[in-house]
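Review form for a predicted model. The reviewer records the input and the model, then writes brief findings.
Reviewer: anonymous (R2)
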Amino acid sequence: MKVHTELYPQALERLQRLIDEAAARGVEEPHTAALATADRQARPSVRTVYIVAVDEAGLLFFANRESGKGQQLRDNPQAALCFYWPVLQEQVQVEGSAVAQDDDLSDQYWRKCSRMIQLGAWASDQGQPAKGKPRVHQQARQLEQAAGFEAIPRPASWCAFRVLPERIEFWPTGWQRLRERLRYQKEANGQWVRAVLNP
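Model under review:
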C-alpha cells in the first residue's frame, strides 16, 4: 500500500485518460456513468448521467433538484459512479459525498448546454406523473417560439452537483478477468492510499 500526496490527482488523471481514450476509439458518450443514490431508508436507485468535468474539485454533473435523484441527493448526499467502456475492457468506480454547487457555477455550465437541452429542462416536470398524454415536445416548441433569439434562463431547480471522491477504483474487465485492480482511497486523516487488489 502506498501513501503519497499526489495519489488523488494521479487517480483523476488516469480516469480522464480513459475517458479520452474511449472518445478517441469512437465510444458513444464516453463521459457517461451510472449514478447510484439512495433515499433516507437506504433504498437505492441508479441511472446514467453525463459527467461534465473531472478535476480535483470532484466529478461534476447536473440534476433537477426536484427529480428522484435530486431529492435523494438532498436527503442522503452519498453517491457512487461507475464508468464502463467495453471496447477498452475497463470500468472505474467512484464513491463519495455529493454536494450541490452554487448558482454561478450552475449558470456557467447552463450557458454551454444546447438550446434543446435548455428547452427540455423547462418543458419537462422531470420524473413527475404526466397529466394525460405527455406533451413535452409540444411544450418545448412553444417555449422555443416564445423565446425567439433570447437566451433561455436556467430553471432554479436545475443544479450542478459534484461527487467528492473518497474511493476511486480501476477495475479492468475482459474474459480472462486476471488483470489487477487498483484502488485509491481517502483515509480518515485525509491522506490518500493506493492498493493493488486481486482480480
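Findings: Residues 2-127+136-197 form a domain with the Pnp Oxidase; Chain A fold (CATH 2.30.110.10).
Further findings: The radius of gyration is 19 Å.
Recommendation: see findings above.
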